[in-house]
Amino acid sequence: MSKTWRPATQLVHGGTLRSPYGETSEAIYLTQGFVYDTSEAAEARFKGESEGYIYARYGSPTNDMFEKRMCLLEGAEDARAMASGMAAVAAAILCQVRAGDHIVGARALFGSCRWVIETLAPKYGVEFTLVDGRDLKNWEAAIRPNTKVFFLESPTNPTLEVVDIEGVAKLANQIGAKLVVDNVFATPLFQKPLELGAHVVVYSATKHIDGQGRCLGGVVLSSKDWITENLQDYFRHTGPAMSPFNAWTLLKGIETLPLRVKQQTANAARIADILADHQKVARVIYPGRADHPQADIIARQMSGGSTLVAFELKGGKQAAFALQNALEVVKISNNLGDAKSLITHPATTTHKNLTDEARAELGISHGTLRLSCGIEDAEDLIEDFERALSAVAA
User: Fold this and answer.
1) Enclosing H/E stretch for 282
2) Which tens digits make up the pLDDT trace of 303-327?
3) Is the peptide bond before 20 cis (omega within 30 degrees of 0)?
4) Which residues of 294-331 are buried (b: 16+ CB within 10 A; e: fewer)?
5) Is the dihedral of CA 199, 126, 206, 23 positive or negative?
6) For the whole model, what pTM was predicted?
7) What are the backbone dihedrals phi and psi of residue 327, each rounded to the nearest 5 degrees, phi first?
8) Fewer CB within 10 Å, N or C, the chain?
9) Which residues contact 27 (CB under 8 A, 6 or more apart)?
């Protein structure tokens, strides 16, 4: 029955397991291990001859519910819940490469994602190439005989560039490589990478899925075959498992995901328009606006805008700091996707480890700010920005 439910219903009821007590809310199975009726039962379970749980590092009923609900939302066959978004990214990439393999990644990535590709992977003999992901010709030119993985974010962090997921997936298929897509900024409500041809999708569930500043989490979704052949052993033996308590918290968060994202996106669209018309703002990038540089791709692969707005102030770092410090409703934080509106200065926080040249390539200046809109009243947010902008020197 759950396969015929619409998304909002799936996010409330999908994958639910109930104990004999018939609890309304999902139960938290806060246990390290499980017991067996007999020695023979334990042997059969370890052999895979009977179904059941073995150890919380491998899985638990609470985590299983979260994974199943995410699969329903994403349209994936299987998933593994991870302790954080970066645990999910690292696992999705590293579980399928070995020394001598080659990764092609879009250069517009979150700082820690770039570290995994640029610093960690080469320590184990894995080569990499970073490209301007906006042009498919760059992806094609970077392909080598040993290319095994393509990795991208779309929209990107923090400048909201968009990559043609379907086009990159076709290139990957031509050479037998796998495309991994970080879909955090679009959310699973506005973009379906698997439907566009991607092979693996990753999320920081810390963001919109929890969306209320409570816990960390991540998830990797793909086909059952890919999970079994690539991720399963990595997951079991390296231990990036999600806590059952966090899985339960995320199950509560996901119930209200459509309501929160709808309000956040509406607020982001309003703020983007206000900022675009302000004399102290040099530029605004928002996937819901017709003036986005890749509006044609957005129309093909996204069904909504975003909860994020990127914009650049004319006065550089001094202006950016003045604006942030003057905001009252909007809080300064490096997080995003929260019910509270949050703003960050990427050049001094999330992307501070990049060189000035690398930031310039990505379009991150000292005046760039990334706004994550929350669910507050839009008029309060607008008044907050109008007042704060008045505090920025002309």
Assistant:
1) strand 281-285
2) 999 999 999 999 999 999 999 999 9
3) no
4) beebbeebbebbbbbbbbbbebeeebbbbbbebbebbb
5) positive
6) 0.95
7) -70, 145
8) N
9) 17, 18, 19, 61, 62, 248
